[in-house]
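User: I've been trying to design a sequence by hand for this structure and keep getting stuck. Would you show me what you'd pick, starting by listing the structure so we're on the same page?

Assistant: Good idea, let's start from the same input. This is the structure you sent:
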């Protein structure tokens, strides 16, 4: 197999004494016995995507290892010292249940301390939202969490947070990347200063739990909480460290944990994927729920920022809610609670969403006469809204990928507070003779029946990246003018920052950061979005269709009609 000179130059660098013997031996082994793997490991540098940097663990510039993370940390250290000259810089570090997360977190802590930075390192694995909380609680300048969220076991990752507890956004992200790219691996200072590393745990846990309860509980009667039967699974992840404690402190006494999945384990042995977006991930939790006749099931991903929810439908069967449905339920509940408490002051308050999420969030904002801010995919953009508009109070918001943010104490998606919030909704509904499912149906009657669908296509490696690029190019350069016999009326291209009226040819500027996203709007209100993932080798297609309904009896017929509409659009796009 021919390996390009540019890749071989990188490989030869990794065979120098800058790298330890074990790394050099592994590179040599790949060079002789697995050139295809070698090429994939070195053909590019790992990049920061939607949720930081994620990749397969191993040697090479396109892998997660002590050198790629060490270089990131060295660059971040230098940027922090330039930005906060004269200050004693402080950073917080957390890590999840994945293989090597603890040792990689220690390496990151060592590099920070070697650069004279005060480090607060969690003594054990902790949820990602707790890291976001800790950054603000400890008045840190930045934070790092070692996690690959719901990716497969061979992955790990590195997410960077700023002073406000939100993830990196422009201009800091590009400025930091520039510093990192100008470094050599030999520039990394791995020699730790132990005096600058403080291990943290219980105090932050307590403050984090109390904050979640303050933001996500609403004077629900004790009897209603005790009468709600909950099944919870951490899917071998970090939420076991927080969610049972928060639910207990909040007064929920009937919490049934899926024991087989309670032990943190980076192999995720009981699931194909530890992703609550995948129905299979909640199989064991649903089985327990049916065995004990539970009211609600909640499952979280390994770093506890996403949650999957299942509730009983009108016939008593457990059904999984999608991310858009849980987001709408939680947002509507928060708005209603704030309204009843006379705390809503129109445009002084706002909810947040993303361009690929359900347009039903716009309907909710209009109904409650509050502002809504819609950003790119990723909670860093919602956190940025909170930072950029301090004169407005953030109520809550989320995105379709099973994440939600309750208030502004945590500036990232937070499965801990969100789990408590969905249990509050369930407890109050049950006490009133209703259910979560019925509450969702009522929202559809009030605001229209919205149905969303996601197609995710995996394309791995160099060839896969080129295929995804070609798909996006075709959609841009040869746009569809009609889908499902409906005219395409608008196309928004976030890479070019343009919105084109396909009927008049008029082009307007989009005032939102650039991103490789295309959105087609049809004459009937349908919305189709194409977006390559920022953290996985995938291209995603998001579909949203809607229909007004008069009562809940129309839902079944509306669902069938909208399902057919989505299927027709998929056929026209040749995605079958």
């Amino acid at each position: 197999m021919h390996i390009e000179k540019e890749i071989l130059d990188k490989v030869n660098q990794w065979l120098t004494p800058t790298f330890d013997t074990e790394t050099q031996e592994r590179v040599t082994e790949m060079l002789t016995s697995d050139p295809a793997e070698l090429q994939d490991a070195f053909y590019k540098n790992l990049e920061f995507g939607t949720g930081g940097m994620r990749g397969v663990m191993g040697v090479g510039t396109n892998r997660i290892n002590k050198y790629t993370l060490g270089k990131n940390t060295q660059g971040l250290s230098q940027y922090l010292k330039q930005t906060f000259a004269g200050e004693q810089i402080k950073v917080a570090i957390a890590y999840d249940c994945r293989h090597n997360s603890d040792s990689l977190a220690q390496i990151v802590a060592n590099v920070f301390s070697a650069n004279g930075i005060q480090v607060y390192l969690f003594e054990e694995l902790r949820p990602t939202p707790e890291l976001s909380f800790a950054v603000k609680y400890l008045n840190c300048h930045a934070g790092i969490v070692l996690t690959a969220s719901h990716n497969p076991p061979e992955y790990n990752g590195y997410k960077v947070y700023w002073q406000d507890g939100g993830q990196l956004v422009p201009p800091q992200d590009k400025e930091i990347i520039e510093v990192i790219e100008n470094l050599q691996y030999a520039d990394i200072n791995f020699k730790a200063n132990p005096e600058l590393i403080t291990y943290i745990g219980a105090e932050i846990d307590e403050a984090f739990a109390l904050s979640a309860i303050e933001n996500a509980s609403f004077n629900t009667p004790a009897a209603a909480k005790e009468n709600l039967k909950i099944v919870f699974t951490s899917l071998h992840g970090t939420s076991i460290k927080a969610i049972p404690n928060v639910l207990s402190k909040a007064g929920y006494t009937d919490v049934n944990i899926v024991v087989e999945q309670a032990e943190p384990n980076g192999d995720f042995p009981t699931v194909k994927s530890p992703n609550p977006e995948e129905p299979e991930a909640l199989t064991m939790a649903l089985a327990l729920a049916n065995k004990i006749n539970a009211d609600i099931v909640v499952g979280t991903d390994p770093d506890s920022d996403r949650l999957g929810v299942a509730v009983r439908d009108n016939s008593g069967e457990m059904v999984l809610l999608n991310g858009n449905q849980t987001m709408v339920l939680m947002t509507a509940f928060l708005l209603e609670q704030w309204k009843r408490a006379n705390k809503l002051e129109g445009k002084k308050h706002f909810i947040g969403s993303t361009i690929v999420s359900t347009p039903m969030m716009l309907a909710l904002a209009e109904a409650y006469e509050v502002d809504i801010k819609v950003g790119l995919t990723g909670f860093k953009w919602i956190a940025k809204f909170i930072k950029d508009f301090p004169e407005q109070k953030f109520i809550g918001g989320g995105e379709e990928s099973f994440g939600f943010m309750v208030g502004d104490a945590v500036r990232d998606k937070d499965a801990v507070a969100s789990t408590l919030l969905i249990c509050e909704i369930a407890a109050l509904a049950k006490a009133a003779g209703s259910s979560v499912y019925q509450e969702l149906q009522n929202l559809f009657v009030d605001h229209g029946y919205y149905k969303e669908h996601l197609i995710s296509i995996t394309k791995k490696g160099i060839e896969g990246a080129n295929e995804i690029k070609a798909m996006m190019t075709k959609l841009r350069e040869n746009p569809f003018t009609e889908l499902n016999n409906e005219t395409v009326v608008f196309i928004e291209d976030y890479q070019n920052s343009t919105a084109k009226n396909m009927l008049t040819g008029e082009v307007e500027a989009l005032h939102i950061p650039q991103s490789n996203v295309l959105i087609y709007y049809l004459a009937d209100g349908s919305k189709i979005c194409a977006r390559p993932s920022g953290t996985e080798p995938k291209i995603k297609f998001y579909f949203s269709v809607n229909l007004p309904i008069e009562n809940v009896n129309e839902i079944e017929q509306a669902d069938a009609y909208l399902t057919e509409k989505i299927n027709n659009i998929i056929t026209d796009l040749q995605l079958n």
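That's my pick for every position. To get oriented when you compare it with your attempt: The mean pLDDT is 96. The chain is about 40% helix and 20% strand.
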